[in-house]
Specification:
Layout lengths: L8 H23 L6 H30 L3 H4 L1 H23 L4 H10 L1 H18 L3 H7 L1 H7 L2 H15 L12 H15 L3 H29 L1
The structure holds protoporphyrin IX containing FE.
Protoporphyrin IX containing FE binds next to helix 2, helix 4, helix 6 and helix 9.
Length: 226
């Protein structure tokens, strides 16, 4: 059977959203409307887009459990790959634009700044996931593929910690510009809790009950109308 080549609205929305940050950056660079510290702004924007896409890819499974929308499961890979793309741009900006490829200085910064170590760990852990995200690797790795891709549940929180630390955040004194990283952390925590098997089972059955109730109600309305 011939495979349909039409894009779904969700697919289009994901591609448009993913590219929007880069397009916007290019437009602003051409118009010269960046802040007085353009390199830092570029680092921050690409980092934020990377983490947003990463969190979005992690939300697909729990949202499917809740709303029974299986297309979300097909979109995890695209979102994850876009997250990796922006993380790579983020790292290139850091090593090239920010540090001019001065490797000894970069190494010194890595050693001195714990948030960079966390960012680097996050990035290194993303690489094997991006490489093996294609079907051919799924077949080759078998059960190990799933195990490898479950590391994303460590990568997500690590990215949030990197974000939190980059804002010089202190959880106990609530200092630093930590509201946004805390929101990301909270969303991630809720959706990771939703993945715990008994909670997931409960939510799946609850959602089935709600959907069937709604279906019965709609059929009743139609029957009454006819
Ligand atoms: C080698 C790896 C990495 C390095 C060297 C690095 C470096 C940096 C630097 C220099 C900043 C800017 C701090 C500032 O001046 O405000 C930053 C912020 C950030 N990075 Fe990374 N990063 C790395 C990996 C990652 C990864 C893998 C992600 C996400 C998937 C990420 C997400 C972020 C976020 C969300 C911010 C904060 C943006 C904001 O301030 O709004 N980083 N990172």
């Amino acid at each position: 059977m011939k495979k349909s080549s039409r894009y779904t609205p969700l697919q289009i929305a994901i591609h448009v959203y993913a590219w929007s940050a880069l397009v916007w950056i290019i437009i602003e660079l051409l118009m010269g409307s960046f802040s007085i510290n353009p390199i830092q702004e570029l680092e921050q924007r690409t980092g934020r887009h990377a983490i947003t896409l990463l969190v979005m890819s992690l939300l697909c499974t729990p949202l499917n459990t809740l709303f029974k929308f299986p297309e979300l499961l097909k979109r995890r890979r695209t979102l994850g790959l876009y997250a990796f793309m922006y993380a790579t741009i983020h790292v290139i900006i850091f090593v090239d634009l920010d540090y001019g490829l001065a490797w000894s200085l970069i190494l010194q910064t890595i050693v001195e700044k714990p948030y960079i170590i966390v960012g680097l760990t996050t990035f290194l852990m993303l690489i094997p996931l991006a490489i093996t995200s294609f079907d051919i690797w799924k077949k080759r790795l078998g059960k190990n593929w799933k195990r490898l891709h479950q590391t994303v549940y460590i990568i997500g929180p690590l990215a949030v910690i990197h974000y939190f630390m980059s804002k010089k955040g202190d959880f106990f004194t609530f200092s630093g510009d930590i509201v946004r990283p805390l929101i990301y952390g909270l969303i991630l925590a809720i959706f990771l809790i939703m993945r715990i098997p008994p909670i997931r089972k409960y939510l799946a059955s609850l959602s089935t009950r709600i959907l069937s109730l709604r279906f019965r109600k709609n059929s009743q309305i139609k029957a009454d109308a006819s």
